[in-house]
Design brief:
heterodimer, A: 339 residues, alpha/beta, Peroxisomal Thiolase, Chain A, domain 1, eleven-stranded mixed β-sheet, 11 helices, 13 strands, B: 396 residues, 2 domains, ten-stranded mixed β-sheet, three-stranded mixed β-sheet, 12 helices, 15 strands, 32% helix
Amino acid sequence: MKKVYIHSAVTISAQNTFENSEFLNEIKAIPLKIAPAHYPNYRDYIAPAASRRMAAGVKMGVTAATKALEKANLKHPDAIIIGTGMGCIEDTEKFLNSIIANDEAFLTPTAFIQSTHNTVGAQIALGLKCKAYNNTFVHAALSFESALMDAQLLIQQEEAHHILVGGVDELGKEIINYIQLLEDAKYKGIQVPFGEGASFFVASSDTEENAVELVDMDVCSTACQETIQNKLKSFLIKNKIEHADIDALVLGRNGDAFDVYYDSVTSLFKNATKLHYKHLSGEFYTASPFGMWVAFEILKRQEIPEALIYDGKTKAEIHTILLYNQFKGRDHSFILLKR
Amino acid sequence: MGVAITGMGIISAIGHSVEENKTSLMASESGIGPLRHIQTKNSKHIKVGEISLSNTQLSKQLQLSEDHSFTRTGLLGLFAAKAALQNANIITNADHKTGFITATTVGGMDMTELFLKQFATDVDAQKYIQSHHAGDATQKIADALDITEFVTTISTACSSAANAIMLGARMIKAGKLDRVIVGGSDPLSKFTINGFKTLMIQSDEPCAPFDAHRKGLNLGEAAAYLVLESDEIVQKENKNVLAYLSGYGNANDAFHQTASSENGEGAFLAMQKALKMAGLNPNQIDYVNAHGTATPNNDLSESVAIQRIFGKNNPDFSSTKAFTGHTLAAAGVVEAVFSIISLQEQTVFPNLNFKSAIPETGLIPVTSVVKKELSHVLSNSFGFGGNCSTLIFSKA
């Protein structure tokens, strides 16, 4: 079975992570409730006329994708696979509100066309004139993980060699406020702001110097803490990794009641540096690929920015990183990266 | 041979079971008619393929509690998925590593469009805030079916369900799952009706796929699922195999966000990939269940692609969209079910409302119920964003 390597990682996030050669060197304080991304200068990536019609998610997605391909020196991917939890919510709200406001009259197609969930994948394909495999996953906190797993399958089964895979979500203007309303009413609700962003990667069957390998990944829709512990143990056994081999643990903590899942997993890895990231990116359905970007940069640079450390000391060498994410006790995912 | 299909379930405008759908297809009875369940100013100007059961009736049949927050996507999906499991004689999903992969474009929009302006203040409406995103209905169906392992949702516009079927097959082949329920669910919604209205591709008459004077599509709603199982289960449990999924292909037209290219490149590539995987020559395909939405653009582009693949001797083909309407994300699996019925019954179903051929290509679809020997059926599904997918089903 072919191995899977990650050749590039790019993220547009609430932090200055896109037009910055440093790695989370200056942490931006983000708003308490809703944290928009730090948008790059799109003019370098998208023609202004096209850009005007695009919502935040499409712009972030196309831009992050372009840079991920550039960094990996890849012009024509064999597949483009996207994950997005809320889809193109900005244009969805726009079209829906014009239906409501004008009582179904005077509607124009642009917002409807761009509200389709596969818009980002389609726009990337269109821009590259890429006729290859193209897919979009829209499954909450497993949207990106489903896309990554699809990429892993395609490479392992030798159906594709170089794949562009990404996660993208935009805040929108209205439904996010209702979601926030529900969350605020909860006992021990999410303690980080809601955010947005785009994280893109090139996955490849080719190795390179100091390559980061996607050793394996697994997802699980529903499980209790004990089941997750057991699943994680068998996941590591399957991949011949000892608990002590894990140098850093990247966890999707957001401060809500379900962080107990992370506590339970943490107890298995006494020696690993425990990291968190959602206090920097915000929480959203595709925040987890920001965590994967973090892990990729750590493995490449062999340094861990202070802001990421939740608990423990940094090891001198970082070879293996395990990522675990869940949302409200569901949509669990493990990603194992190795340099 | 491909991946074994051991069960199927469907609810569409032409029936609430596989049996009822089959009866309508055999009798050339269309399900296209006036819109009933949705309040819209467009009612008089469109024809749709609507499922007769209301949400209340569906909830009752599914024995859901009165305060449930299933949207219509979830209700139709659960209805069809339960039927598929029953058809495959599956009592529990706990005995095998089981996945659920479904497709939708509407997600929870049918409720969001009713309650958006009440979300801030109306406590009763607030249960539909969390049901807006596409994964919510999927999760509810998976919960009801006790599927806890791999659950995901695909949305590539009108090719979505074909991609869900494809992913399920790849996961069975890779040994990641032993059993997977694959398909899609898409209800009608005011949002989609108005969206297609702005694109001016909805017909006010029953649609006429591949006809020279076609006026556009009729939207429809449906949910359908297939059960795919590993060869090991099939052998061990001596399962009845309905058909095999022997090939599939996914390509992108990379031409325009909503329109298909003149040479049908995406469709051509998808069919070519599927044939290659199935190890079949084009002349071994006995019937093509075309995407055939009856829009001027799609049918011409698809006709060109069919001619590029099959040359002058194209196989029998028809679009069944004039029976069901275009069921968007569900279309790929609705037509997968029809393709399997074709193989089981050794019957090609008619392309209703066809009168004269498109002048550019001269292609003439099958217009009546035809009994013939069928070994391999090819089914196309294409969507916005250039997403093109092809599936090939082979006789068990």
